[in-house]
């Protein structure tokens, strides 16, 4: 009981920032390299919610999300993701602001990806063979962050394992 109360108190003090999305890529990832040599990938992802209105008609409501991947996860996104692919993303929300050309303050909220899974099956051709980035094998201390990868070992009917990016870098 003490552990549960302690856990809840820590949540109240620290808060939780967790996002889970399943959707389709709206465009191929745009990948750039920072001055220090760190790769960053950015892409849009659509999630669609289906419901019935008062008249019983089926309606779709699509939300667009901007996803940011860093280092090893950015390299995986660059190599394996493209427009239309269905993916699962776990991450956290980050909001940033800037001034546009007219001096107006603008805001954007992005999802900084921590985990990524390509969905689909190899049989339908929607999922290419994809290496696994093992947690802890992506260098977080240097700008030289080539992940150690291994070919996935999958059993029939299982989803591919998580691809993780543990680093928390400001964009």
Which helices and strands appear, and what pairs or packs with what?
Layout lengths: L1 H13 L4 E7 L4 E4 L5 E14 L5 E13 H10 L5 E14 L5 E14 L13 E2 L15 E2 L12 E2 L7
CATH C-level class: Mainly Beta
Q: Tell me the strand order in the biggest sheet.
A: 1-3-4-6-5
CATH topology: OB fold (Dihydrolipoamide Acetyltransferase, E2P)
Q: What's the end-to-end separation, in Å?
A: 40 Å
**Could you say how many structural domains there are in total?**
1
The count of helical stretches stands at: 2
Low-confidence segments, given as residue ranges, are: 131-171
- Give the percentage of residues in beta strands: 35-45%
Number of strands: 9
Helix content: 10-25%
Largest sheet: 5 strands, mixed, barrel
Plain-language structure description:
The protein contains two helices and nine strands; from the N terminus they run αββββαβββββ. With 171 residues, the protein is mainly beta. It has one domain: OB fold (Dihydrolipoamide Acetyltransferase, E2P). It has a five-stranded mixed barrel with strand order 1-3-4-6-5. Strands 7-8 form a two-stranded antiparallel ribbon. A hairpin with a 5-residue loop joins strand 3 and strand 4.
Please name the defining characteristics of this protein.
OB fold (Dihydrolipoamide Acetyltransferase, E2P); 171 residues; mainly beta; 2 helices; two-stranded antiparallel ribbon; 9 strands
